[in-house]
Amino acid sequence: MRSRLFFxxxxxxxxxxxxxxxxxxxxxxxxWWAWPPNLPDSNTRLQYHSFQTDPNLNLSPDWTADGYTPxxxxxxxxxxxxxxxxxxSYMPLLFVSxxxxxxxxxxxxFSVDENDVLTKVMGNLRVEEQYKxxxxxVIWEGPAGASLTVDVNSEADTTISLTQYDIxxxxxxxxxxxxxxxxxxxxxxxxxxxxxxxxxxxxxxVVDSIYVGTQCVPEPSTLVLLLGFGGLCALRYRRRRK
Length: 242
Hints:
- This protein is mainly beta.
- The chain has one domain (4-241).
- It is 13% helix and 41% strand.
- The protein has helices at 7-17, 221-241, and strands at residues 4-5, 22-23, 44-49, 63-66, 75-77, 86-87, 108-112, 117-123, 130-141, 147-154, 159-169, 172-185, 190-198, 205-218.
- Strands 1, 2, 3, 4, 6, 7, 9, 11, 12 and 14 form a ten-stranded mixed beta sheet that branches. A four-stranded antiparallel beta sheet has the order 5-8-13-10, with no helix packed on it.
- Helix 1 (7-17) crosses helix 2 (221-241).
- The protein is globular.
């Protein structure tokens, strides 16, 4: 079920963004992201989860904005040992300052232990002539040395590019926003996001909130996009050598 990783695209995206933590930056949401009360276009699905309660219930302040009806229902699978509404020291507007939600990440989240995995399956509509862009942010707190790995899976005949990086606020070093983004080709019937936490030891991490969105993009733009990424990487390399 695991898709083949699209290495060319991954290298191109990593060249642009890197995997090194950034400091003191707001999360750079894509242009196609829409904030409440605005609705996304007909190719886009957007979600926000606070983990104050079970995210499968989609209770306020959680929200889902669908530009189209997917072929199957979304589903979260969370570690049974975790707890909801765990209080933290998170400061609103630390990483996300949006006009609609006003960063509802509120200092109450879901606790995870070493090697715990949170899994999110999002429904889609299979379209051979399109590819899928995805973008997401996990706002979480953990001890020094802790890390979050994002893995993306889909149908067996798809190819996937993925990059992720952390944004760390210098004054709140235990807090970070893990940003992940990439492409799936062709547009699949579903995609699965796995969030694995390691380096916790005997401590816990707390997931305050997760933003995740996907957009359907018509072909044949994929090759042009990848060539553009590669060209920009080469340009940056030449400039550095100069």
